Amino acid sequence: MVEMELWFTEQQTPDLGFTCKITKTIYTAKTQYQDLAILETKQFGRMLVLDGAVQTTIADEFCYHELISHVPLFTHPNPKKVAVIGGGDGGVIREILKHDEVEKAYLIEIDREVIEASKKYLPEISCALDDERAEVIITDGIKFVSENKNMFDVIIVDSTDPVGPAVGLFQDSFYKAVFECLKEDGLFVAQTESPFYDQDLIKNVFHAVKSIFPITRLYLGFIPTYPSGLWSFTLGSKKYDPLEVDISKIKRIDTKYYNPELHKALFALPTFVQEII
Ligand code: AG3
Question: Which residue segment(s) compose the domain that 193 sits in?
């Protein structure tokens, strides 16, 4: 018998693919919003794929989930109410709940099936969704932020790429609604793609956020399975500046990527990235 090898490729750009060997297709579905797959990969363990784009893997999920969570949560001095827009796998909720002062973390996800598949097949990532401080609300994030005012200390936008269901999460009107949805000293972070491949997007988002929030900052991290590996996050804040945090006061929590020494260093940008914004 011939051993058959199965490979998954994400077409990251029209001219570049990211390929890894699959030992098993765990689950596939066509949801109301997108194509969903959970794959068992040799290199990265289980992988969540939405519309052909890698969202997270067991091996490198900590990089993304820690960076998008702990930078805003250690910038706000007392984050009690936190919302995640998107993030149906639950990885951001798990990180948020490592902060004892958080009273409630809301997951605002449009696609129920992402949550269900993650609960079933990615328990290491989704484990905190049943915590009593977590509340899952299945609705459109844009609708949710525009209907709730003055409600959160921190909002984290853990979206897919700016295509399909997530397009509206990269628009000016959404950032205005996020501003209104935050308390008077609130702040937010959004994942904003690769500085190698998405320069126009990063620039547009940065300037849109800057026209609404008094403090706007871009920071970077390394996420091996995302296009180019180098990934950007845009932070908008009404009052607290991540660069002014007293890092000696940051509590040690259980993390593999984030640490207090990195908190400000993440905002030091390579020259080609400085030139984008
Ligand atoms: N959300 C951002 C994924 C973007 C990856 N893009 C890509 N592979 N083309 C991740 C969700 C994890 N909670």
Answer: 61-274
